[in-house]
Design brief:
The structure holds 2 protein chains of 2 kinds. Chain A is an alpha/beta fold. Helix content of chain A is 32%, strand content 26%. Chain A has a 6-stranded mixed β-sheet with strand order 6-7-8-3-9-10, sandwiched between helices. A 4-stranded antiparallel β-sheet of chain A has the order 2-1-4-5, covered by helices on one side. In chain A, helix 5 packs parallel to helix 6 and helix 6 crosses helix 8. By secondary structure, chain B is an alpha+beta fold. Chain B has 2 domains: 188 residues, no CATH class; 283 residues, no CATH class. Chain B is 53% helix and 16% strand. Chain B has 17 helices and 12 strands. In chain B, strand 3 and strand 4 form a beta hairpin. In chain B, helix 2 runs antiparallel to helix 13. The longest helix of chain B is centred in the last third of the chain and has 49 residues. The chains are: A alpha/beta, B alpha+beta. Chains A and B meet through helix 2 of A and helix 14, helix 15 and helix 17 of B. Bound molecules: adenosine-5'-triphosphate and magnesium ion. The site of magnesium ion has 2 residues of chain A, from helix 1.
Chain lengths: 250, 488
């Protein structure tokens, strides 16, 4: 059974007397362990779709079965629980708390999982997650002491904290240069390969979309194509070809 | 997150904006500080007035044996100056001599002086100063009347005290050890009062008043341990009593300081007596003297088996009634207090009334000051919390995306508000403690910070935090995660 089963999802915004059809009867299944990229022009409904996928929003109609459970009609608090346990978010603008250390930023999801871990355990897990994204030495740095790529890696570490089966990333490379974009995609590919995490990346850049093994195109709130990508780019290999940047020589 | 972690998070968030937080809690600090200080000063003033009233002996009640009324010749009076009646030999209450005595008519010359026997032993019916009180009466008062603080049964004599070739004719008071606690204006120039042990052993010990001390030993000699002779018995001097009050420094003839004090039991043993001249009592509160005197009167009437119509065979007088009579001829005093029964109570009750009214006014004033300052402080907190919610919209959205429920967000902001107001309140209490100390040091006012006021202040501060924090916290909790995340 597919991890995500979506059928006839619609979302309509009403602004004044104008109806904006952000999603029109979208149907799709995503299996566990897939690396899906979603592309489409601005305003095509990608973010709206991701909000519903991420249980931040509810559709006007249609059904959404996540991990065998219909989540399209859950209450706000129940949705919060599902988000906490099932989905790791990565945002375009990183969304790290300012003037707060990397470790504390990474700990955040564990503050809301019902005291499953003691503060000491939380800290240990946060340090481990930072190490997994190559930032072991930056635990006590604040966001303004980190580069954009490093900040996005802190955000990925945060997304991994409650060990979710799904990572949802909306334009994760939108604020990054080419090299750091590839570094971020490499981490995603590694997570999918090594941990079997389902990765869904939204982007409007086709180069980034080609890292996925399945590419879905949106236009006007509809899926216009849904194709497997057997020639997915491999970020790890590409990184080896690139010259090492001066900042990381030391 | 556990509650302690929530509080920890709140304090850290507030510390990040340290100056802003400090300025916000100043309002609460000033409010709480001002109120606690003013309550302390108010309490202090009330306590010190009560102290002064007690120090002035306003809570002293004297029960004197006998009653002039029994003679049937005085229609009005219930009050007698017992000193005058017993000191006929010296001062004389000229108008109505009860015992015509010569200075030589002195019970110490012989142990079992007939005069003493007569006065204390016999129930001389019709005599104003009949010996109608017993130690059993004193014990009954001690145990059976509520609101009693100290009781001392007394016998009053005149005695010749000899030291070497010096001799001094003075008052001799037989009393109990609590007498030293009843006489608030006493201080021990030398030594101490006689002890319970000496009292129980009918020891031959005596405490001198300053005047007797000066006449026998001279002002600068420490007489403790020396021996004086009274009634041909050797008495060891254990202490000298002086007055702390400049107004009552003893002069010759003064009843308290031109006197010697001996355990009542010793007097009873040497003179072979059992009756008393007086029982001196203090009530715990000055405002209760009237109530306590009434209770004593009732108790003694019952004990003495006095019928409804019969007059008392004793007189209960308060310090106030004595003070009223001072400087007025005894007849006039008797006429005044006799014709206006309860006059002495009036003064005390008026005093306590005035005090109560003043403190009620003070309370109302304090409450309004407290209310206004806490309102202002609370609005300050609300203002800052609303600003904080707006500033941290994105943070709220993020926390929600990561799994925070509405109530988690609500709790976080409410905790911040309450932490602010609580810190403000605690600092206010500390400032109030410092200010009360300062008032004591600099202005020499007494200020009493009561624990109740402190607890109440802190609780009210917390309540202000909750009340004014709830609206901003709800604003935060009701945010939509998507809108909040998008907020710039
Ligand atoms: N809260 C909202 N209220 C009204 N209309 C909205 C709202 N959110 C999105 N829309 C509309 O829905 C449509 C889809 O928007 P969406 O954000 O999903 O696009 P997108 O594909 O993510 O675009 P981009 O690539 O620019 O991020 C747009 O026309 C947008 O104006
Ligand atoms: Mg978008």
């Amino acid at each position: 059974m597919a991890l995500i089963q979506i059928k006839d999802l619609t979302k309509t915004y009403v602004v004044g007397d104008q109806h904006v059809h952000a999603l029109r009867k979208v149907s799709l299944d995503i299996k566990s362990g897939e690396f899906v990229t979603i592309v489409g022009p601005s305003g095509s409904g990608k973010s709206t779709f991701m909000h519903i996928l991420g249980c931040l929003d509810r559709p006007n109609s249609g059904s959404y079965i996540l991990n065998g459970r219909d989540v399209s009609k859950l209450s706000k608090d129940e949705l919060a629980r599902v988000r906490n346990s099932t989905i790791g978010f990565v945002f375009q603008s990183f969304n790290l708390l300012p003037r707060t250390s990397a470790i504390e930023n990474v700990e955040l999801p564990l503050l809301y999982n019902g005291n499953k871990y003691t503060p000491a355990e939380r800290k240990k897990k946060a340090v481990a997650a930072l190490a997994a994204v190559g930032l072991a030495a930056r635990g006590h740095h604040h966001p303004n002491q980190l580069s954009g790529g490093q900040q996005q890696r802190v955000a990925i570490a945060r997304a991994l904290m409650s060990e979710p089966p799904i990572i949802l990333a909306d334009e994760p490379t939108g604020n990054l240069d080419t090299r750091t974009s590839i570094e971020v995609m490499e981490i995603f590919q590694q997570l999918q390969r090594d941990r079997g995490i389902t990765v869904i990346v939204i982007t409007h850049e086709h180069q980034i979309a080609e890292y996925g093994t399945r590419i879905i195109s949106f236009r006007d709130g509809r899926i216009v194509s849904d194709l497997p990508n057997s020639y997915a780019r491999l970020a790890a290999e590409e990184l080896e070809q690139l010259p090492v940047p001066a900042s990381e020589v030391a | 997150m556990t509650l302690s972690e929530t509080v920890h998070l709140a304090t850290r968030t507030l510390r990040r904006n340290a100056l802003r937080s400090a300025l916000t809690l100043v309002g609460i600090t000033i409010g709480v500080g001002a109120v606690v200080t003013m309550v302390a000063v108010g309490n202090g003033a009330r306590a010190s007035i009560e102290d002064q009233v007690v120090a002035a002996g306003m809570n002293v009640i004297t029960v004197v044996a006998g009653n002039y009324k029994m003679k049937g010749e005085d229609g009005g009076g219930g009050v007698v100056d017992h000193n005058a009646s017993l000191e006929t030999g010296k001062k004389g209450s000229g108008a109505r001599p009860l015992f015509v005595r010569h200075p030589e008519d002195d019970p110490m010359e012989k142990h079992d002086h007939p005069t003493a026997r007569q006065r204390l032993g016999d129930s001389a019916a019709g005599l104003g100063a009949a010996a109608t009180l017993t130690r059993a009466d004193a014990d009954a008062i001690r145990q059976g009347v509520s609101g009693i603080q100290y009781v001392s049964a007394g016998v009053h004599e005149s005695a010749r005290v000899l030291y070497g070739d010096r001799r001094w004719f003075t008052r001799l008071h037989g009393g109990e050890t609590d007498l030293q606690r009843i006489r608030r204006s006493w201080t021990f120039k030398y030594g101490r009062f006689f002890s319970d042990r000496e009292f129980n052993n009918t020891a031959l010990v005596t405490v001198l008043g300053t005047v007797a001390h000066e006449k026998l030993f001279g002002r600068e000699t420490d007489p403790t341990g020396r021996e004086v002779r009274i009634w041909n018995q050797p008495f060891t001097v254990v202490g000298v009593i002086a007055s702390t009050n400049w107004a009552t420094t003893g002069a010759v003839g003064d009843d308290q300081f031109d006197a010697v004090y001996v355990p009542l039991t010793t007097v009873h043993r040497l003179l072979n007596l059992s009756k008393l001249n007086s029982i001196t009592v203090t009530s715990r509160s000055a405002g209760e003297t009237t109530k306590v005197s009434r209770a004593i009167t009732e108790l003694l009437r019952k004990r003495h088996g006095i019928g409804e119509a019969a007059p008392d065979d004793f007189v209960v007088q308060t310090q106030a009634s004595l003070a009223l009579g001072k400087g007025v001829s005894p007849q006039v005093a008797r006429a005044i207090t006799g014709n206006a029964p309860g006059l002495e109570q009036l003064t005390l009750e008026q005093l306590s009334h005035t005090l109560e009214r003043a403190s009620r006014t003070m309370t109302v004033l304090l409450a309004s000051v407290a209310g206004v300052s806490l309102l202002v402080g609370g609005i300050g907190i609300m203002n800052i919390m609303l600003l904080s919610v707006t500033e941290r919209t994105k943070e709220i959205g993020l926390r929600m995306a990561l799994g925070a429920r509405s109530r988690d967000v609500m709790l976080q902001f409410l905790t911040e508000a309450v932490t602010l107001s609580l810190i403000g309140g605690v600092i206010g209490v500390l400032l109030a403690l410092a200010a009360s100390g300062g008032v004591k040091q600099v202005l020499r006012w007494s200020a009493v910070v009561s624990p109740e006021a402190v607890v109440l202040a802190v609780v009210v501060a917390a309540a202000v935090g909750v009340f004014f924090g709830i609206y901003p916290a709800r604003q935060a909790a009701q945010l939509d995660p998507i809108d909040a995340l998008r907020y710039e």
